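Appendix B, record 7
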Amino acid sequence: MFAGRYLWWMLMGIGIFMFAALSLDYITWLMIQLSGCGDMAGACEPVLRLISGMLKPACIWTAICMLFMATLLRLHALSLIWFWGPIVAVWFVASTPILLFVAADAAALTQPAMLAVLPVALLFLAVFIAYLVIAVEDGDRPPLAASLPLRLTLRLTAVYGALAGAAFMPELSRIAGTLLDMPALSVVIALAQPYLQRVLTLGTGSMAPAYAVLAAFIAALAACLLPHAAAPQPSRSAIMLRRLRR
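Structure tokens (predicted):
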């Protein structure tokens, strides 16, 4: 999937999500006012069940699946699916609870306290999606084909972001145990998460290390867009062969 089509699908997914989160509640209120069902007890239940119970969750999950599938197709087109596909999947899973919460209460997103507790996985995902929107394949260089230190920085910070997403996701143990039908796995994950959090925060209990890694991830992605950083350096054997030809 090329960059223009990827951007179109991402905007479609975001548009569906925003419509479900911001507009469906007002549409429900308007239908109740126009139908006059509020005057009779229980008369509005079919409307509420249809819109709030079926239509809104369907739109939210359709938008999330659309964003996820478009990102995977974009990675496949760029030949980045094998490493970045699982990383992006973890970021999406870790970001889904906050997306569902925002869809249920969109007004909470405007509160400073809400912005302060956004999961770090969502921030990694947003930055990476912004990078994928850029038509990096139009040049003579493959995407993310930076120097070895930059590639290593990108991969290490991405793995950190995935681990942080799993470590700071309270619902992970319940979801994993329910989907796999393994209650013991839920217990193991619940016991392992505090230790993983302690390691990722360097024992400080603060998210400052995670934000520092996020800053390094953003800087590495930005450096990959620079022509001199993205151009592969000739190997020593290629340089020696060029000298021999001279």
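Remarks on this record: The chain has a mean pLDDT of 80. The first helix runs from residue 3 to 35.
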